[in-house]
């Protein structure tokens, strides 16, 4: 879901919202990918506890989730509103 919170000339400021369920699902998916490839002493591949993964890779996971959500929203918004991104201006993300 999104709201256009500011419209000025040919510029739009958009606020995106996403369900907690979808965000949680993205976190689980990325943790699973990391765990599957992670070799850590004392744990079999794919069996590293969530708390350890979050402690070591939490910031990376958050960035991956945010980027995934942003890409999804951007493509849906551009398609729905028939907008074109202007590469000459800086994006606020």
How many strands? 2
**Total helical segments:** 2
* Succession of helices and strands: EEHH
Unreliable residue stretches: none
What is the CATH architecture descriptor of the domain at 23-87? 2-Layer Sandwich
Instruction: Write the CATH fold name of the domain at 23-87.
Output: Alpha-Beta Plaits
End-to-end Cα distance: 17 Å
Overall CATH class of the domain at 23-87:
Alpha Beta
Helix amount: 40-55%
| Nearest-integer average pLDDT | 83
Strand order of the largest sheet: 1-2
Give a written overview of the molecule.
The chain is α+β, with helices and mostly antiparallel strands and 93 residues long. The chain has a domain at 23-87: Trigger factor ribosome-binding domain (Alpha-Beta Plaits), CATH 3.30.70. It has two helices and two strands. The protein has a two-stranded antiparallel ribbon. A hairpin with a 2-residue loop joins strand 1 and strand 2 (11-16). Helix 1 crosses helix 2. The two termini are 17 Å apart. The mean pLDDT is 83.
Using brief descriptors, characterize the structure shown.
93 residues, 2 helices, two-stranded antiparallel sheet, 2 strands, elongated, Alpha-Beta Plaits, single chain, 54% helix, 14% strand, alpha+beta
Strands, helices and their partners?
Elements: E1 2-8, E2 11-16, H1 20-37, H2 50-81
Antiparallel strand pairs: 1-2
Helix pairs in contact: 1-2
Task: Quickly describe the structure.
α1 packs across α2. The protein has a domain at 23-87: Alpha-Beta Plaits (2-Layer Sandwich), CATH 3.30.70. It has helices at 20-37, 50-81; strands spanning 2-8, 11-16.
